[in-house]
């Protein structure tokens, strides 16, 4: 699951394009299938979204929640792909994008009535 935060005036107009770009990166780097898009957008009022100096109101935070198993090199490739593709396709400079990957063991995930470590039919590999 991916959660995207930003100031609503900047985030709302680009939601679909940003979702497409993020999912393209997830597919190309992690091998995620087309139908495994789980994005949640949190548009905030400017007074509810404090961010570091040197950033613009386009500042966007992307939190990626995933099962453990991807190598550090794979995770770094994903982050770099996001910076590059978001800049070229959505127009947000890397200085205004923050990416955090949060990993949890498979047993901490629950979907389709089972835990992640019980799932044997994933259409993608977690260990990449």
Automatic annotation (TrEMBL):
Pfam families: Tautomerase_2. It comes from the Bacteria. PANTHER family: TAUTOMERASE YOLI-RELATED. This is Tautomerase family protein. It comes from Halomonas binhaiensis. The lineage of its organism: Bacteria, Pseudomonadati, Pseudomonadota, Gammaproteobacteria, Oceanospirillales.
């Amino acid at each position: 699951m991916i959660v995207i935060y930003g100031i609503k005036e900047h985030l709302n107009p680009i939601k679909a394009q940003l979702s497409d770009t993020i999912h393209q990166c997830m597919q190309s780097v992690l091998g995620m299938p087309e139908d495994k898009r789980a994005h949640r957008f949190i548009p905030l009022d400017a007074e509810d979204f404090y961010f570091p100096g040197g950033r613009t109101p386009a500042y966007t935070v992307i939190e990626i929640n995933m099962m453990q198993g991807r190598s550090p090199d794979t995770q770094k490739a994903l982050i770099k792909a996001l910076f590059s593709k978001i800049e070229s396709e959505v127009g947000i400079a890397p200085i205004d994008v923050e990416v955090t990957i949060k990993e949890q063991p498979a047993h901490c995930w629950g979907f389709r009535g089972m835990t992640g470590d019980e799932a044997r039919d994933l259409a993608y590999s977690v260990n990449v």
